[in-house]
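Tokens in:
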């Protein structure tokens, strides 16, 4: 062990050792060994075997026992083992070109061996462009057509490092294959969706406010997605969680369905008229559904390398902002490339910074804008900056150190409402109902404001009944309550419009 640590024993050349590799090892050993120069050739000769040892012993011992003994020994071995440079270059290229990943090789081991063989080619001035190296790596990785398409989508650009990183991220199991669970988590599951009309929010009248009101009508009337509740969330079916109908119209309920949708031959059962449009994967309208669901919302997309949105989505979002919020918009020309899952490549034409509100936190979102019908896709970098922690079990998230409720699109994507609204403060009931005549007017108003917000901006009459049931009968408190409700900005913004008369009163009278 002491001799090994002192580097007195030279590297051995076995029957399977490449001669050029052994020469490199000898060159390193000569720099670190403690042996004198004239003894180095003698030590190397004793470590050789077979033809190499026989060739070394042909040299006079006196010639080996000199400071130039190693040069003499290497020259003799070169005449026996050294190949022509052209032969070595062709051998390195053949090993590199014929290399393929085996089924038992992990993706990491395959990439390491691929880089080693590529470096061997570079020693003989065979340097391939980065794009060729990346495509060669992909072709040699023994992947299916679907897996290759996924790797191309995950690669940020045509660089070898980008392709290497994408393969390591996706195929990181023992055999370098992507399991079925990972595949289902990346691709979009296409299912049937029921819609009765397409809603164009860009044509929504300003007087109707936001969110737009839907006409519930009867079971057979036309309507789009379900209206949102008082918390800004889209209401869902209690049976199948769809946002396009309620439980009474659900096709999955246990009651016999009044309408039968079938692809088989028609039977004698009378057909009923139903104003439903069935969108399936054969129709090219899934993107329209996705866009309609995502207006005013941001879709969480951890595979997206940079936050991006479509022009149509941005125009619709700007229409929902007031003049003060529109003044916060910042735009600048931009031209960044994006590649989507279908392989389509597009370039942005604008960079925008838009005001938004995530939960109760006011923020600004920096996004690229492309002329494609896509919603706002929050990238992995943006989610990291917000300190996002996903709770998949409860369909919630923590952003900016505050809990945020997540919604679903019909395709299964998580989406997040980013419309600027008045923050809702959750106050314990014991604090809300502490309104009495012993408080001054400012404290009473403060508690009444919390009470009004806590119960979803309830009317003054409903809050009065609540306070009376809690034992409060002070008329001054009720008067202050009316003032709080009438001055609420949210109630004023979304209150119902007063009916307009069909005709007006005469402007003048005769007499």
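Residues out:
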């Amino acid at each position: 062990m002491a001799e090994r640590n002192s580097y007195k024993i030279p590297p051995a050349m076995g029957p399977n050792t490449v001669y050029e590799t052994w020469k490199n090892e000898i060159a390193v050993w000569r720099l670190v060994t403690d042996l004198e120069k004239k003894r180095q050739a003698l030590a190397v000769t004793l470590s050789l075997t077979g033809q190499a040892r026989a060739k070394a012993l042909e040299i006079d011992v006196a010639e080996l026992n000199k400071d130039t003994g190693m040069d003499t020994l290497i020259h003799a071995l070169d005449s026996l083992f050294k190949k022509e440079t052209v032969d070595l270059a062709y051998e390195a290229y053949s090993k590199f070109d014929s290399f393929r990943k085996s089924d038992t090789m992990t993706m990491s081991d395959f990439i390491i061996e691929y880089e080693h063989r590529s470096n061997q080619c570079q020693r003989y001035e065979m340097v391939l462009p980065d794009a060729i190296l990346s495509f060669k790596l992909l072709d040699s990785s023994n992947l299916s057509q679907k897996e290759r398409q996924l790797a191309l989508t995950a690669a940020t650009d045509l660089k070898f490092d980008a392709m290497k990183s994408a393969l390591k991220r996706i195929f990181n199991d023992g055999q370098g294959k992507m399991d079925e669970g990972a595949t289902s988590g990346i691709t979009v599951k296409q299912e049937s969706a029921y819609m009765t009309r397409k809603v164009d929010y860009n044509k929504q009248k300003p007087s109707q406010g936001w969110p737009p009101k839907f006409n519930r009508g009867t079971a057979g009337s036309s309507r789009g997605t379900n209206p949102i509740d008082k918390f800004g969330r889209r209401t869902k079916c209690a049976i199948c969680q769809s946002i396009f109908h309620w439980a009474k119209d659900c096709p999955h309920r246990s009651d016999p369905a009044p309408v039968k949708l079938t692809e088989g031959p028609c039977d004698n059962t009378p057909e009923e008229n139903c104003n439903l449009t069935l969108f399936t994967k054969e129709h090219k309208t899934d993107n329209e559904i996705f866009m309609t669901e995502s207006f005013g919302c941001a879709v969480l997309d951890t595979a997206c390398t940079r936050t991006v949105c479509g022009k149509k989505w941005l125009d619709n979002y700007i229409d929902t902002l007031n003049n003060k919020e529109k003044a916060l918009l910042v735009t600048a020309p931009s031209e960044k490339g994006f590649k989507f899952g279908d392989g389509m490549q597009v370039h942005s034409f604008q960079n925008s910074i838009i005001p938004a509100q995530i939960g109760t936190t006011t923020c600004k979102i920096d996004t690229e804008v492309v002329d494609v019908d896509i919603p706002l896709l929050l990238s992995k970098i943006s989610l990291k900056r917000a300190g996002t922690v996903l709770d998949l079990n409860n369909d919630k998230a923590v952003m900016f150190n505050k809990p945020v409720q997540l919604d679903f699109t019909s395709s299964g994507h998580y989406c997040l409402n980013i419309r600027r609204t008045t923050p809702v403060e959750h106050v314990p009931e014991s604090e809300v109902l502490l309104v009495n005549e012993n408080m001054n007017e400012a404290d009473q108003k403060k508690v009444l404001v919390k009470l009004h917000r806590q119960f979803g901006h309830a009317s003054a009459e409903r809050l009065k009944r609540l306070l009376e049931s809690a034992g409060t009968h002070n008329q001054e408190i009720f008067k202050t309550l009316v003032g709080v409700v009438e001055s609420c900005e949210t109630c004023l913004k979304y209150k119902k419009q007063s009916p307009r008369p069909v005709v007006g009163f005469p402007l003048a009278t005769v007499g």
